[in-house]
Design a protein that fits this description.
The complex is a heterodimer of chains A (338) and B (382). Chain A is 33% helix and 22% strand. In chain A, the strands form four sheets. In chain A, strands 3, 6, 7, 8, 9 and 15 form a six-stranded mixed sheet that branches. Chain A has two domains: 227 residues, D-Maltodextrin-Binding Protein, domain 2; 96 residues, 3-Layer(aba) Sandwich (D-Maltodextrin-Binding Protein, domain 2), CATH 3.40.190.10. Chain A is an alpha/beta fold. Chain B is mostly helical and 382 residues long. Chain B is globular, with a radius of gyration of 28 Å. Classes of the chains: A alpha/beta (338), B mainly alpha (382).
Chain lengths: 338, 382
């Protein structure tokens, strides 16, 4: 896409990106020199700007991995912060090349909306937090509770489903912003606070007496979050999909950003194929053969990205749980590179 | 006879009795002039006594001014150093993210361009607003026609060897000011034209103006922004992208133009018929009548209304947040999602910080409008 500057009548100037009848996203991306990645307007640990205004997070790392695969340079990403309402339009209209914005993989989105989910980079689910003084140890004891949550999200619908299916009366206290929800819960306007489990532990830090609250063990919904691309561009879809798989495979093989250079000398054929020493897996996707090497070198493997952004040592303090590798009791699993 | 007492100097001037002057009098007159006022005063004092110490404690005494993350603002149970019932503002958050709140994602090394744009704008504004400085006409021409071009080149780059910075990397106060100032600068002249159009005797002109005003005024700004950011891309041919910020700028400007037109029309209606007839008797053309006789009077009358619209517009800029453009409030909210800074006090103090900045801008506008009104009051003031 070429940038043409057109002076409009009012003296306003607009950036008119005249795309030559889309040759395929990967060519477009290579031509413009960066990946345009849609992210959230700020979700802790997944995509949020740090103090300097640089985007960081688990979702952001997927964008960076794709850039590393295409250009060999993970920094060649431009981010578009998108609201939940805008995100799919932005992708459909071609404003962004890929969407990595804690988006739940659902049937409607995968089919009717014309999108493709390139995998799952985080298995989330909805959880509950309550006051210890309530003496509750399971969500099934929450009959008649006032539940604080965000408006207009799937969380609200999930609560309705859950309480109805267990025939428990409840009362919804909903707010637009998470901060308001937490404040309301903190002030005692409701008994239960519910949101995605990934956010519960971190939100607890916003409470005035965090030690007086516990997270209940139940997870009441499936929220597989992953990167999304447009339907109908299989080459690009493959690239995004395998960028994510490469990170998971690298973790499984014990290849990290620290040891990836040595690992290139490994005799293990699986590692040699991953790092592009053997085979032409990169060329088949339209990128260089050391695509996965660049991903691991610059972004790290899946485990590194997890620990850096949401893991136990971060304020979010999320344990690997279901997001551990399949070989370690989780469900993160990537097809082999061969 | 010599023991007559003759006073040689004036009696010393005694201060007036405390019942008619001095602080006691002032207090009596203003605070306790009746049973109702006395009760109100006592009530007000009570409210102040209850709130002020807590506020001062929260905002200043307990406040955390310097820390590298939100831990310092947390109670002990959250891993912080403070006792359980402690609460204080977390100013270090605003301090650490100040650059982000000012410029958004604007690249660090290029921020001097934003600063330069701001400095030129501020100098131009001072030259324009302070009346004793001469050459107003040239300054005005510069600010209205040259400055926008300079600002555009400096901020977005892409020419003269300046690196191109897409508008989605702009943010913070930069975006707030760009949206507000564009809205203000576009809406006033366009609004005047529309107001004149609506009072015009030419049916087509009148109809077009009424149509424009009623459509834009009848639609919520949020709808306008949503149309601009979500719907418009679907209507455009594939591969054609308008810049999102530009779409919102046009939306906000046209929206405020409609309001401005009605404010100005209010002023035009207040001008008595004799003024028009007088101008006609002098043989002035329509534009001269308007430019020399009617508008100067009408605009002066509606200064409060105009400034009201400006202030409203300035605060409405935060609505661009919902279409994913990060203005000041947007960057603050985005900054709040940084888990490093999570604490019970971060959000509250960040919003106080934002409110203070918005208040400062709006208050400045309001004071300047009062100054203008006082300067221009001729005849109408009672």
């Amino acid at each position: 896409m070429k940038k043409l500057m057109v002076t409009a009548a009012l003296g306003a100037v607009m950036g008119l990106a005249a795309g030559a009848a889309s040759a395929g996203t990967i060519e477009d991306v290579k031509a413009k020199g960066f990946v345009q990645c849609g992210v959230s307007q700020g979700l802790p640990g997944f995509s949020n700007p740090d103090d300097k205004g640089n985007w960081t997070g688990l979702d952001v790392d997927v964008c960076r991995a794709v850039a590393a695969a295409v250009f060999g340079d993970a920094s060649k990403v431009k981010y578009t912060p998108l609201s939940a309402k805008e995100r799919f339009t932005a992708l459909q209209s071609g404003e962004i090349d890929m969407l990595s914005r804690n988006t739940t993989w659902t049937a409607t989105r995968d089919t009717a909306l014309g999108l493709n989910f390139a995998g799952v980079n985080y298995y989330d689910g909805q959880g509950f937090m309550v006051r210890k003084s309530l003496g509750v140890s399971s969500a099934l004891e929450l009959s008649g509770a006032a539940v604080c949550t965000n408006t207009g999200t799937t969380t609200e619908l999930n609560v309705a489903d859950y309480f109805r299916s267990h025939k428990m009366p409840y009362e919804i206290v909903a707010f637009e912003k998470s901060d308001e929800v937490v404040q309301a819960y903190n002030a005692g306007r409701c008994d239960v606070y519910t949101t995605d489990a990934s956010g519960l532990y971190a939100q607890r830090l916003k409470l005035t007496k965090p030690d007086e609250h516990i997270v209940l063990p139940e997870i009441i919904s499936k929220e597989p979050l992953g990167p999304v691309v447009r339907q109908g561009d299989d080459q690009w879809f493959n690239l995004v999909k395998w960028s994510l798989f490469a990170m998971v495979n690298a973790e499984e093989m014990g290849v990290t950003s620290a040891n990836v250079d040595e690992m290139k000398k490994s005799t293990n054929p699986a590692i040699r194929r991953l790092l592009g020493v053997e085979g032409k897996f990169g060329e088949n996707m339209g990128v260089s053969n050391d695509w996965a090497f660049n991903i691991v070198k610059q972004v790290g493997n899946y485990g590194e990205a997890f620990d850096r952004n949401v893991g136990p040592k971060t304020p979010l303090g999320i344990a690997r749980g279901v997001n551990a590798l399949w070989s370690k009791g989780g469900i993160q699993y990537a097809p082999p590179i061969r | 006879m010599s023991d007559h007492y003759i006073r040689k100097e004036d009696a010393p001037l005694l201060p007036p009795p405390s019942s008619v002057a001095g602080p006691v009098h002032w207090i009596r007159e203003n605070l306790f002039s009746g049973w109702f006022n006395s009760i109100m005063t006592l009530l007000a004092i009570y409210v102040l006594v209850v709130t002020v110490p807590g506020l001062v404690e929260y905002l200043f005494i307990n406040a955390v001014w310097d820390s590298v993350d939100g831990k310092a603002c947390r109670p002990a149970a959250g891993g912080g150093p403070n006792p359980a019932d402690w609460s204080g503002a977390c100013w270090s958050f605003a301090k650490a993210k100040f650059g982000f709140f000012m410029y958004g994602f604007y690249p660090d090394a290029l921020r001097w361009r934003v600063d330069l744009t701001g400095v030129i704008g501020a100098v131009g504004l001072v030259l324009l607003l302070i009346e004793t400085i001469p050459h107003k006409r040239w300054t005005a021409v510069f600010m209205l026609f040259v400055y926008p071009v300079i600002a555009y080149i400096l901020l977005s780059g892409g020419m003269f060897n300046l690196e191109y910075v897409e508008t989605n990397r702009w943010g913070g106060i930069l975006v707030t000011l760009v949206v507000a100032i564009t809205g203000i600068v576009v809406s006033l002249p366009l609004g005047i034209l529309l107001a004149l159009g609506r009072r015009s005797k030419m049916p087509a002109m009148r109809f077009a103006s009424v149509l424009f005003i009623e459509i834009w005024r009848g639609v919520p700004l949020i709808t306008v922004l949503f149309m601009a950011s979500v719907m418009l891309p679907l209507f455009l041919p594939e591969g054609v992208h308008f810049d999102k910020l530009l779409r919102c700028l046009i939306g906000v400007a046209l929206f405020s133009t409609a309001y401005m037109a009605e404010v100005v029309r209010g002023g035009l209606q207040a001008i008595v018929r004799g003024q028009y007839e007088g101008a006609q008797a002098l043989g002035l053309s329509y534009w001269k009548t308007m430019g020399l006789i009617i508008l100067p009077q009408a605009l002066k009358l509606v200064i409060p209304g105009i400034v009201n619209t400006f202030i409203g517009l300035f605060k409405d800029t935060t609505l661009v947040l919902i279409v994913g453009i990060l203005d000041l409030l947007g960057t603050v909210q985005t900054g709040l999602t940084d888990a490093k800074w999570f604490s019970p006090n971060t959000a509250t103090s960040a919003y106080i910080f934002t409110a203070a900045i918005f208040w400062a801008f709006c208050f400045a506008m309001s004071r300047y409008s009062i100054y203008m009104e006082n300067k221009l009051h001729t005849g109408h003031k009672r």
